Amino acid sequence: MHRSRLAGFIIDCKNADLQSAAEFWSGALGMEARALPGEEGDKYVRLVDPRERLLIEVQSVSHESRVHLDIETDDVEAEVRRLEQLGAKKVQQVNTWWVMEAPTGQRFCVVRAKGPAFASEARTWK
Amino acid sequence: MHRSRLAGFIIDCKNADLQSAAEFWSGALGMEARALPGEEGDKYVRLVDPRERLLIEVQSVSHESRVHLDIETDDVEAEVRRLEQLGAKKVQQVNTWWVMEAPTGQRFCVVRAKGPAFASEARTWK
Questions:
Q1: Rounded CA gap, A75 and A91, in Å?
Q2: Whole-number Å distance between alpha carbons of B79 and B4
């Protein structure tokens, strides 16, 4: 038995100056941009959702620009197996998370639970 | 003076069988898939966010699969001008909405306000 939920989405920006990219998306979505500490801050800027609905980040990447979804879980391996049974495919393991590809073509990530609402909102899978 | 907010996101699926695509994403995100009435139902399936955080839909499209964000507003033309000033470009007007491209490369849409939380959550721009 494990749990998962939609954690949020990451705005991947190809070869972007991270601060400029975050400034655009902060203004466009009307959300404050917040620097992250340590190494995480070199690649990601948090956009603060005032209602804490979702975790939203701007990321500088080397691949094409896109928006990708993150699914958070208390058991990454079990969630990856569940998603494989639904038709998704493993693409690559990166640090503690898995990049997967949906049968409809989009890449998404399965990450360790970190959103504030995980405990109250995650679905339980048996 | 007008208002806008992040309405949600659309999961664009290239040449997809809409029901199969919606079934995958419904299962992956743990959200109920709900058919939409009329012509809208030919192209979109709603994924019901139990907390009504965001409007999430699966769409069958002819372009490459991706995830795109929707910004909702009570004044589409004013919001498009605001976003142009931030660096976005108009791509195409479709029915009542505009497709735009961010300076970081992602396409997104500016749509008429329709989310349940618009009145309480939208930012006001002067």
A1: 18
A2: 7
Nearest to A101 by CA among A74, A80, A115: A80
Whether residues B13 and A104 touch (CB distance < 8 A) is answered with yes
Distance CA B110, CA B20 (A): 27
Cβ–Cβ contact A80 with B under 8 A: no
Check CB contact of A107 with chain B, cutoff 8 Å. Answer: no
How many Å is the Cα radius of gyration of chain B? 15
- Taking the C-alpha atoms of residue A22 and residue A39, their distance in angstroms, rounded to an integer, is 17
8 A C-beta contact, residue B22 and residue B45:
yes
* Contacts with A63 (C-beta within 8 Å, 6 or more apart), sequence order: A12, A14
AA letter at B115: G
3-state secondary structure of B37: coil
pTM for this predicted structure: 0.95
Neighbour-count burial of A37, counting CB atoms closer than 10 A to its CB (0-12 exposed, 13-18 middle, 19+ buried): exposed
d(CA B109, CA B92): 10
Instruction: Return d(Cα B85, Cα B100) in angstroms, integer.
Output: 12
**Rounded distance between C-alpha atoms, residue A71 and residue A55, angstroms:** 11
Contact B66 A106 (CB under 8 A): yes
Whether A2 and A73 have beta carbons less than 8 Å apart is answered as yes
Instruction: Please name which of B36, B27, B29 lies closest in space to residue B59, comparing C-alpha atoms.
Output: B36
Q: What is the pLDDT of residues B27-58, one digit of tens each?
A: 999 999 999 999 889 999 999 987 777 899 99
Longest dimension (CA), chain B: 44
